[in-house]
Design goal:
Blueprint (H helix, E strand, L loop, with lengths): L2 H9 L48 E6 L3 H12 L4 E7 L2 H11 L3 E5 L7 H11 L5 E6 L5 H9 L3 E4 L4 H13 L6 H11 L8 H5 L2 H11 L4 H8 L3 H15 L4 H11 L6
Parallel strand pairs: 1-2, 1-3, 3-4, 4-5
Helix pairs in contact: 1-2, 3-4, 4-5, 9-11, 9-12, 10-11, 11-12
Length: 273
């Protein structure tokens, strides 16, 4: 069953229509959708495991963190229908999310930005601060232009998704962040930075340490280009681009491309808009 078929099976009639724009996730919540089996975490309703889908060896392992069970169920149905993706756990609060992620070590976490006990921002910070090889975290939200979402990106989230639009976008986002090959929804990140960036009064020290080519690579990263696309644009080999990307991350003190782009916007190195 494809992502589109799964989204219909979950209850297309209940899906939120008229997206306000930008990225989104199809999370229609029809009554027929069933949750996976598994033991609850911390007394919450979210199972830490389940029968899973056609993940198989080498599948992208995903944890869902949202305080609404119907949302988690819808996301599980969509993702478990995809080859190469397996939902391995769920959490209903930020505290549960931290515990489940520590126990299961997934590749990707879909994290609701607003949850009981601790919110998605604090949960993201705790996960990234306490795991040597943390998962890629994507915050899920109702509103695109949300200061909470920008704070989550600053805290280390790899990107964000809206709780609307089609299932294919959700699946594509999970695969993209798992590859760590390009920025998720660069235009949306740019819009958030234009609205919420806390710009520095002076250029940061790292800006002077970037070579001209590294500066070019950072600007192309902000446009959402993959290594292959940057290689073609700059006329250099993919291995050279990879070296430049690594240098940019090291010099900006960034965990990943999203953090480097946020740093570039906040420093004034790149002007959003």
């Amino acid at each position: 069953m494809s992502a589109g078929e799964a989204g219909h099976a979950v209850g297309a009639g209940d899906m939120v229509a008229d997206s306000v724009g930008g990225p989104g996730v199809g999370v229609g919540v029809g009554a027929g959708a069933g949750a996976g089996a598994g033991a609850g975490v911390g007394g919450g309703p979210g199972p830490v495991g389940g029968a899973g889908g056609p993940g198989g060896p080498g599948a992208i392992r995903v944890v869902l963190a949202d305080d609404e069970r119907m949302v988690r169920t819808a996301l599980r149905v969509i993702l478990d229908a995809e080859a190469g993706i397996e939902v391995v756990g769920e959490a209903a609060t930020g505290a549960e999310a931290v515990s489940v992620v520590r126990a299961l070590r997934p590749d990707v976490v879909l994290m609701d930005v607003r949850m009981p006990q601790i919110d998605g921002i604090r949960a993201t910070e705790q996960i990234l601060a306490t795991l040597a090889d943390p998962p890629r975290i994507v915050v899920v939200t109702t509103f695109e232009n949300d200061a909470y979402v920008y704070d989550a990106l600053r805290a280390g989230a790899a990107g964000f998704l809206l709780k609307r639009a089609d299932p294919d976008e959700l699946v594509g986002a999970v695969r993209l962040v798992a590859r760590s090959d390009s920025l998720l929804f660069p235009a949306a990140v740019r819009g958030l930075a234009a609205e919420h960036a806390r710009r520095s009064p002076a250029p940061p020290p790292w800006a002077a340490r970037l070579t001209d080519r590294e500066g070019d690579v950072l600007r192309l990263m902000a446009k959402g280009m993959s290594n292959t696309e940057m290689s073609e644009c700059l006329g250099v080999g993919p291995a050279t681009v990879k070296t430049h990307v690594a240098a940019v991350l090291a010099k900006t003190g960034s965990r990943d491309r999203t953090q480097a782009v946020i740093a570039a916007y906040e420093s004034g190195f790149i002007t959003p808009g």
